[in-house]
Amino acid sequence: MRRFLINKLIRDRMCEYMTSRGYQYTPTIMEQPEYIAKLRDKISEEAQEVFDAQSREELIVELADLCEVIECLCEAENISELHAPKGSMLPIKQHQ
Questions:
Q1: Which among 1, 55, 73, 90 is least surrounded, fewest beta carbons within 10 Å?
Q2: What whole-number distance in Å separates Cα of residue 72 and Cα of residue 32?
């Protein structure tokens, strides 16, 4: 059996996909500081993909990905719309 090391954040849906296809995997649950660092790295990666988008459709997909990672970072840092400067357009939700 071939083995792969995926040393990056993946979406929950990817775990479901891998399981449904019969792949075996061992996820690693990160401590909060490492998770936040990985999210910051992921924001940089997604921002580059926004920059590199060649079509409107690709841009829409990449912007959605970037917003998703920003939301995850805001949640991890317990930042809500209440913390955002008045009138800002940060794509963050109020967390419970």
A1: 1
A2: 12
